[in-house]
Amino acid sequence: MSYELREHTADVAVEATADSLGAVFAAVADGMAAAMTAETPDAGSRFTFEERAESQEALLFDYLDRLIYERDVRNVLPVDHDAAVREADGEWVVEASARGVPLNEVHARDLKAVTYSEMDLSEREGDGGWHAYVVFDV
């Protein structure tokens, strides 16, 4: 799994690829964290959460929005992401975890929100891997 930060007019974008849907979610989240800070200490503890949505794209949006919520409410920068995505009872579910680095231990740039602008979440032709492109409002 990998990600790249992309320049975007007045915003920042993350482009990611991975072998599975859950891994591409985690790669985008890792890219989001990298957009907020260049260095992360080993501090913090892991937390888990689950999100549900009606589509894969809505689930990716809600997952990333939840990470921003965790940052704002718990005062931590979520890093070292892990995510598993599955379909259950007609909806999509992500079971995820991250390590929450206390914000007072890191110099972090603020990301205001995840956006649907230009969002792409697609299965790659041929190899079964996944591609994601997400723009964040800064």
From TrEMBL:
Gene3D superfamilies: Archease domain. The keyword Thylakoid does not apply. One of its GO terms (molecular function) is metal ion binding. InterPro entries: Archease, Archease_dom, Archease_dom_sf. One of its GO terms (biological process) is tRNA processing. Belongs to the archease family. This is Archease. It comes from Halobacterium sp. NMX12-1. The lineage of its organism: Archaea, Methanobacteriati, Methanobacteriota, Stenosarchaea group, Halobacteria.
